[in-house]
Amino acid sequence: MSQSLHFFTPSSNITLPKHHSSLFTPSLTTSNRRFPVTTKHFTIKSNASSSSSDPKVLTTDNGTAEILSRVSQTPASSTDSSSIEVDSVTEAELKENGFRSTRRTKLVCTIGPATCGFEQLEALAVGGMNVARINMCHGTREWHRRVIERVRRLNEEKGFAVAIMMDTEGSEIHMGDLSGPPSARAEDGEIWTFTVRAFDSPRPERTITVNYDGFAEDVKVGDELLVDGGMVRFEVIEKIGPDVKCRCTDPGLLLPRANLTFWRDGSLVRERNAMLPTISPKDWLDIDFGITEGVDFIAISFVKSAEVINHLKSYIAARSRDSDIAVIAKIESIDSLKNLEEIILASDGAMVARGDLGAQIPLEQVPSAQQKIVQLCRQLNKPVIVASQLLESMIEYPTPTRAEVADVSEAVRQRADALMLSGESAMGQFPDKALTVLRSVSLRIEKWWREEKRHEAMELPDVGSSFAESISEEICNSAAKMANNLEVDALFVYTKTGHMASLLSRCRPDCPIFAFTSTTSVRRRLNLRWGLIPFRLSFSDDMESNLNRTFSLLKARGMIKSGDLVIAVSDVLQSIQVMNVP
Ligand SMILES: Nc1ncnc2c1ncn2[C@@H]1O[C@H](COP(=O)(O)OP(=O)(O)OP(=O)(O)O)[C@@H](O)[C@H]1O
Ligand SMILES: CC(=O)C(=O)O
Ligand SMILES: [K+]
Ligand SMILES: [Mg+2]
């Protein structure tokens, strides 16, 4: 039987339903029509450092007509279009499909033997990979260094902006490498030995090494041993010194370095292994490696508390000159769920690591945990990645199951910032096809969401800790609302640190957000945020000239055209401007 998967490709001329709003200020309601729009220029002048009771003055500045005429006088030919950097895939997408149809959900691919070559990496980048993840559980540092080098070269030579995420191994219990074959199959009733012994010579058949020295002491006869959260199950039948004999009760595939948990009377046993440090000595070496290589994100496995995140962040700050590596907390343990809010607050983002999470809590609790983590991250303005088994069957088959497509759709519908491929891209047979499925499903669900105008009434609590930050937040909330009500084509944000761009992304507006930043590393980091199209552009404190330049550069590359309606905000001059591209 042949199967094919059909997804709608968004057409270039989406006409969105009109809706009327009297939401914004009176001066705007007069121009609450899509075209033609006379430009309004709002400047929220603030004096954040003053503690006066009313430091905010909102002025509508009708002098913008003047600005506009000056913009239109700027000849496109006088500009150097090479001085703006955007990745070639986004550029092509914008040209082909227009603003409205760009993908908002970001895609992370785990790089492994199936995808580590330059051409394989390029195929993933062309397919929409925003972030390449390397998992330090597998491979040597030298292997990972070569992958990083190839991704960087790809970015330089081909104009991509793929960010690198390094994922630590952590101290949880896992199997060692299998001696010889890439995987082994355990059959029902077979007896396997799990051992903490080290082998010089070939090891006996059906023998698995375990990385945790206390393993043989901690397990008891009668315990249930789960590989990869239950993909294969064993019952402990006998302990002989360092060896633990187990009978297979649920057959399946044993993969190298698969996670191990053991259960007693229906509960996860968390004895001494719970005391192991979150960041092991080997992890610290890997972290040093990541800092030296200048990775963009470090994802920390099995985070238990905010303390470890704070510790790592100060370590990175002391070690790396610009301390611009973002720390992602992987939520994959009972402890991380208990301390969820403080962990997310301390981190620069989070990952719903459903693989190990599903080994620590009952599987049926994973979906609600996912929803909770995704929501909390958005509320706290942190990017969130939904990871593991999204398209597991595609490791072996070229089409996903209906259930997998539904799972991906649900993560997109929850408005997670990013989706991640694990084995599908690391060692599966169809990495490019799996990425295509993520991309098509994301585009389709996002379009559906916009068409249905499913603006969820999620409350976004204030996150700013200073008055200046509160102003930025208010500006972004208002700008996003205006963008939806006025059905603008794009939001532009000029942002030095990326913070203002993140605040716009957090609102999940209907239109894409063009984020202009002068730093390459900020640009790469913004790649993980929902709906942001990051550009590198050097800009000044003069918003007029920034806008003029941006319009000329983007027009010269065919990425915007006259008449497009744009709202621009900036953290340089805290302002909101509404205008048609001249
Ligand atoms: N660098 C690599 N070298 C060899 N195999 C790899 C590599 N990276 C991943 N893999 C393979 O891909 C599978 C899935 O990768 P992934 O990184 O998601 O592992 P995981 O064990 O699920 O994640 P984690 O260890 O973070 O919980 C691994 O089990 C491994 O077989
Ligand atoms: C990604 C990961 O670490 C997990 O799902 O367990
Ligand atoms: K890992
Ligand atoms: Mg994990």
From TrEMBL:
Magnesium among keywords: yes
EC category: transferase
Q: Which domain of life is it from?
A: Eukaryota
Q: In which pathway does it act?
A: Carbohydrate degradation; glycolysis; pyruvate from D-glyceraldehyde 3-phosphate: step 5/5
What's the Enzyme Commission number for this chain? 2.7.1.40
- Which UniProt keyword terms apply here? ATP-binding, Chloroplast, Glycolysis, Kinase, Magnesium, Metal-binding, Nucleotide-binding, Plastid, Potassium, Pyruvate, Transferase, Transit peptide
- List, for all copies, the residue spans of the domain called Pyruvate kinase C-terminal: 473-572
Primary location class: plastid
Cofactor dependence is on:
Mg(2+); K(+)
Q: Which family does it belong to?
A: Belongs to the pyruvate kinase family.
UniProt subunit comment? Oligomer of alpha and beta subunits.
Q: What is this protein called?
A: Pyruvate kinase
Name its species. Answer: Citrus clementina (Clementine)
